Give the backbone structure.
Amino acid sequence: MVNDYNLSSRGGNTSLFGRLDMTAVGLYIALVIVGFVCITAASFEEESLNYLSFSHNYMKQLMWIGISSVVALVILLLDRRLFHMFAYPAYIAGLGLLIACLLFGREVNGAKAWFEFGGVRIQPVEFAKIATALMMARVMSSYSFNIKRLPDLMKVAGVILLPLAIIVLQNDTGSGLVLCSFLFVLFREGITKYIYFPALFTVFLFIVSFIFSPEAIFSFLLVAFTLFSALKTGAIEAHLRFLAGVVLASIFLAVVTPLSGYASLMIVTGVAAVVLGAVAVKARALMLLWPILMFVYAMLFVPTCDFLFEKLEPHQQNRILTFVGMKSDPMGIDYNVNQSQIAIGSGGLFGKGFMEGTQIKYDYVPEKHTDFIFCTVGEEWGFLGAIVVISLYMALILRLMRMGERIKEPFGRVYCYCVASIILFHVWVNVGMTIGLMPVMGIPLPLMSYGGSSLVAFTMLIMIAIRLDASTDDGDTLYNI
């Protein structure tokens, strides 16, 4: 029945190109064309004497579109078992490129994440994402793999964290955070939901540590976790008494000892957490252990936030401070985002028209053809044009997820979800930073931002998924190699 459905849904054609998901291919082509049009509008020079010169960004992008088309055709003609076979070598090669770039790469905008050959720059991290996605699929499709087992979970964590650590050392934190999107893949494969709460909780603590004092954060969490535990166990009065005792003891220690109020709170609550944890174990109220552990973790993590913040580059620190509203620099660090919001807002409902965007035409928006390409969409095509572009991305992401569910083997399913996660993260962060909802990270908009490395890498990511999906009805499996 599955084979009949898949064949009928693709017109009953048993040839390779007849079994391609033409909806996904069409969405890919549409986004590439939209990107080329936007790059042309953003980089066109009316005073130029030669519009077809490869000194123009839009002509360079046209060349990369041609190269990407060849790459796409080659991938579609490959035996899909090769992607499974070469997942390990590709991952090792990806790590090698990242290390080589860290040692010998060119520094651009504070990140040592580029190779430069003549006038061509290549960003290895874009291709490392492909290798990591293939490795994720290979590891998670191995025999007897179970994401709920700690050894298997540690394997997956190692696959993600190893390239992430190298990318962070390159000072390209934005690109490294893309790998965190694989948490969505782990969720699809059945990882316990309790893994996600510590990750989100860590991000929450890191952000609020710049807004509130440690004592305020600590007191809020103390009340929140105590009430949560009380409601879960029904012992409200007992927990309120515990809360009152901790607060009073902390105030007493803060007054009579030379320690700071936060240090006093840490001591008292640490002892109280140990006692309460022992009582919870003895009373078999194990649900109390989770908030206790999270509370102790917060108590240890919050004091380290300042240390982690100091390790960031000055421009990264400023981006975080402006994002949380603690610093305002309209003509400095805030300039890009402010001009981006002006450009998008000035487009109105229908936009100003092709090449009629004043903010774009007169260079008010920096990086208008790369990281801030979405500004061109907003100003020249308006709100409706922006909705169409976002809809194309959402359709492509949903199509990749559907392809993953349609593929019989876990390798293809995991890989398709990896690609969908990467694209979702890029779109979410890139569009969010252009309208001021996300900090500026320097992440390109897939298939639309100017750049050969990004376009070729996303082409490879998507085409590998389409090739795996086209083999859904083949008789052989990936393991018959």
Summary: Residues 61 and 450 are 6 Å apart (CA to CA). Residues 212-310 form one domain. The chain has two domains: 2-192+407-470, 212-310.
